[in-house]
Amino acid sequence: MAESEIENGRVGRLRSGFRRPGFRLGQSLSRRLLVLTILFVMLSEVLIFVPSIANFRKMWLEQRLNAAQIAALALEATPDNMISPALQQELLENAQVYAVSLHRDERHRLILSEKMPPEIDARYDLRDAMAPMLIMDAFHTLFAGDGRVIEVTGSPRFGAGDFIEIVVGETPLRQAMLRYGTNIFWLSLVISIMTASLVYLVLHLVFVRPMRRITENMVAFRENPEDARRLIAPSAREDEIGVAERELGAMQREIRATLNQRAHLASLGAAVSKINHDLRNILANAQLISDRIGAVNDPTVQHLAPRLFASIDRAIDLCTKTLRFGRADEEPPHRAPVLLAPLVDDVCELVGLPVDGGTRWMNDVPRDFELVADRDHLFRILLNLGRNAVQAIQDGSAGEGEIRISARRAGDHVHIDIADTGPGLPEKARAHLFEPFAGSARAGGTGLGLAIADELARGHGGRIDMLTTGEKGTTFRVCIPGEGTMLDCREAEGNRSTTPGVAAQ
Fold first, then answer.
1. If 0-12 CB within 10 Å is exposed, 13-18 middle and 19+ buried, where does residue 304 land?
2. CA-to-CA distance for 464 and 445, rounded, in angstroms?
3. To 5 degrees, how large is the angle CA 453–CA 457–CA 460?
4. Ranges of the chain whose pLDDT falls below 50
5. pTM here?
6. Gyration radius of the chain over CA positions
7. Are the beta carbons of 150 and 168 closer than 8 angstroms?
8. Which residues of 29-68 are buried (b: 16+ CB within 10 A; e: fewer)?
């Protein structure tokens, strides 16, 4: 498989993994939460609906009993408990019943009835009916269909008798129950959606979104544990989510340190050589400055003396830091705004240019070009790449050439190009670029310069690439991503837009 295909696959996994895991509808925690909340609220409404519909039926029948009782009492206004057929029919129609029978003292009955009352299909007694029976009777009414006639027995109001019986058509009751049930259904649905939405919103903000943030951070950290930007920044929450964030952050730092520690311990010889390599470079530069001081007049001495002291201070500081290399990794970069052009000038003073001026150092970086990076790490990256470029030119047949430093912006990334006019890298060095002890182009070299520079660039979330190499020279590119972006350097390269006024490649 080609290298570009491998890299594209890695970039694709990073893009899909860090931005958001690709959850399907059934896998999303937030969607499951919303659906389950609606279902549970609807279930609660159903549990409320069942006794409500039974109670509605009971009240409807009691209203018919009360109206029938009033109609039956009209008989007492007559001397012989007899009324005209027209009045009797009017009383029955107002009570919405076919017949009424009011029982008193187990002897006396007041009866209103049509001439030919319909046949009774079912009988119900409301006097001693319990809730389960009322619920069963209600559903029996709903599913029985229209056209039934029922007899209902109940207790009369205000002690007006022992009990009262009515014969009534069940169709109006069933239609009223269906309307009531429909209204209850839509009302329950609206309440369920509103309640579910509010509960979902609160749970999403309080639980789901923080959990999604933790998940995305875990996926991003797995893709590139060496990138210090992918360590989670714990929130100030004091609950279980906050504890999880802080514990995850601590675990990520431990894993990152352990991974680097194991890699360093596995190549202890490379660690020792790295210390000697950087220390030799800095002390050699100090010696070079001392030689130049001895060959010039007093004004030059006054100019170079501070740089001599700075070089020695860097050597002491580097010795202190590198003594910890075997048990820990490079410290995470401490990013701050850095003016690149003055930094390139400082590198020029220490890169080891020949005194005879045969190698020219060309700083094409605009004086106001600024990026956010660790100044010390960026200095070491450019110093190692610059020294390699100087050595490549000195190893050439002519021993003369130039090193050109330029920079530009590619979206949220900064690209710094170091181009030399040396003889190019041999095939062996190209095949093992950035590998300690294997990527050196010089006899007796260790190849640690590029390895150190690449490790420092990766600590920023960036990378170093060799753009070209050949008889006309070699060009390396240092990519430093912005502090707030998670795009891979090659993604930014594909979407780059050169900022006006910044030197392009």
1. middle
2. 20
3. 150
4. 1-26, 322-328, 444, 496-505
5. 0.47
6. 45
7. yes
8. ebeebbeebbeebbeebeeebeeebbebbbebbeebbebb
Strands 413-420 and 401-410: antiparallel
Q: Residue 444: left (phi > 0), alpha (psi -120 to 50), or beta?
A: left
> Cβ contacts of residue 55 below 8 Å, gap of 6+?
134
Q: What is the pLDDT of residues 115-129, one digit of tens each?
A: 677 888 888 988 888
12-56 residue pLDDT tens: 443 443 444 444 444 566 677 777 777 887 788 778 888 888 999
Cβ(334)–Cβ(374) below 8 Å: yes
DSSP 93-157: HHHT-SEEEEEETTTEEEEEE-SSPPPP-EEEE-SS--HHHHHHHHHHHHHH-SS-EEEEEEPPG
Give the closest residue to 168 by CA, choosing from 153, 149, 181, 154: 149
User: Which residues are 410's β-sheet partners?
Assistant: 413, 498
Quote the pLDDT of residue 8.
44
Confirm if 223 and 18 have CB atoms less than 8 A apart.
Answer: yes
CA distances from 358 to 41, 349, 421, 460 (A): 83, 15, 12, 34
How many Cβ atoms from other residues are within 10 Å of residue 136's Cβ? 12
Tokens of 57: 């039926």
Under 8 Å between Cβ of 256 and 329: yes
Contacts of 71-77 with CB under 8 Å at 24 or more apart are 71/95, 71/97, 71/100, 71/112, 72/100, 72/101, 72/102, 72/110, 72/111, 72/112, 72/164, 73/102, 73/110, 73/160, 75/110, 75/111, 75/112, 76/110
Cα angle for residues 38, 44, 50 (degrees, 5° grid): 130
The answer to whether 422 and 393 have CB atoms below 8 angstroms apart is: yes
- Residue 407: HSE in the Cβ half-sphere, 13 Å Cα cutoff: 20
Residues 26, 27, 29: CA angle, nearest 5 degrees:
110
Helix (H), strand (E) at residue 361:
strand 359-363
